[in-house]
Structure formats: C-alpha cells, structure tokens
Amino acid sequence: MHESKHDEFMQTLMVYSESGGVTKTTTAVSIAAIAASQGRRTVLIDLDPRAASTKWLDVVPAEEGLHVGAILGDENPEGWAEDLAIQSSWFPELRIVPSARNVSNREADRADHAELRLRTSLEGLNADLVVIDCPNRQGGPLTLSALNAADTILYASSASGDGVDGVAGARRTVEQFRASRHRIGAPANLTEAGIVCGGVRETIMSRAATASIDDLRDTGMLLVPLVPDRAIVQEVRLVGEWYGKYRKGAPVLNAYTEIVRQVIR
C-alpha cells in the first residue's frame, strides 16, 4: 500500500475525545496558538463539521468549498493542506485549514484508501506543527483520517463523567486502529501524549468532578496542571479573539503553555 510521506521533523497532533463539550476545541486552538506564538510554523486543521475552530479564529475559505472537505473528497489531494491553509490574524505563524457543515458528508465515503487523503494532503506542508481538531465521533472516516495523519494523540477531557467516558472511548478507538494496522503489517506510529483536563473549577469542586479527575489520574496519563475554568475563554470565542491577550485569561494561558512544553517536541 502506498502511503505519502511528509516532513519527518513535522509533528502532527490530533486532539481527540468521543464526547462533546469537553474542551476539545479549546485545547486544540490553545495548543496551536501558543505554539505559533513561540515561533513554530503551525497549521490548525479543523476536521469537525461543527467548525468550532474555524468560527473561533474567524476565518472563511478563500473560495466556496475550499475547506477540509475538499481534501477528504479528492482522490489525490497531495499538497492541498498548504494550498487551503488560511492565514490567521492572531499570529504570523498560525494558519488554519477551515471546516464547514457539509464535511459531515464525508462520513459516508467508503472509497478505497479515503482515510489516507488527509495524510497525503500534508505532503510539502510548510509547517513545524499540525494540530487536528477532531470531531467527537466513534471511529468513522473522519476519525480514521486523523489517526492515519497523526503521530501524536492528545486526549481532551473535562472533570465530568462525559469527559472520562470520552477519553475511554477514544482510547478504545485508538487501540482498535493499532490492532487493525498490525493485522495488515502496517506501522501505527502513534504516541499517546496524555490527557488534558480543562474547564476545572478549582474553588468549588463537586464530588463528581473530584471523582472524575481521580478516574483520569488512574490512567497514568493525566497531564498537569489542570486547566482552570475562566469565563473569558467563552466570551472571546464569540468575537473571534484570543484569550491570551487578556489578563483574565492568564491562568488558562499559563496552564496550556506548560502542556505545550510537555507534548510538543
């Protein structure tokens, strides 16, 4: 089976959970923005049909249909990520390949090797880091596309039952992917970088939240610090701004900056 190769020094990190509302997009955007602010050439790929990352960074495709769905729908999208990446206004080193609602149509695509198209599109990409904001799907073509493109997985969670369940489901999907690759004699070079727990209310911690954090810690993969909950994050998402510009966002920025130090090579 032919598989395209991209820059061996480029890290491709997928941010993944199989539950919604567990800070997945906040984590993906934060990792990408902080890495770019530190001078890394960073491309954020919005693979989620909800297009939450696309909306937050307030970008639109250069032309109608020139979003990640174009990559997933073409038989040979070699180099397309470079062509479709839109410059962000936040940092000079940050670009984003946008998403759109009709990307969900790609879930029905069962063409041979369709799951390799995203990886193929990264060939020739001018980047040090690719961050993929994944949909909260249980397997399926979109998730398989990310798994085939990525070399690193960062699980996103919140201090909740949904957060724990989303990580557990995601880890099962990753294990199934590795097993299927092993069966066909193909490598699955995926590193599990850990679990980010976001939106944590430090002052009023419920019993359920404490139990959820304990469950995440029991995996041996929980990264510290935990990311605190701050209203500023949701406020700036509505207006397409970066919370790191604001003093109230500093605790969240500092937590994600330490996580970047741990997971980005």
Automatic annotation (TrEMBL):
Name all AAA domain ranges: 10-179
InterPro entries named in the record: AAA_dom, DNA_Partitioning_ATPase, P-loop_NTPase
Q: Offer one Pfam family short name for this entry.
A: AAA_31
- Taxonomically, the superkingdom here is Bacteria
* Protein name in UniProt: Cellulose biosynthesis protein BcsQ
- The source organism is Cryobacterium roopkundense
Q: What are the leading ranks of the lineage?
A: Bacteria, Bacillati, Actinomycetota, Actinomycetes, Micrococcales
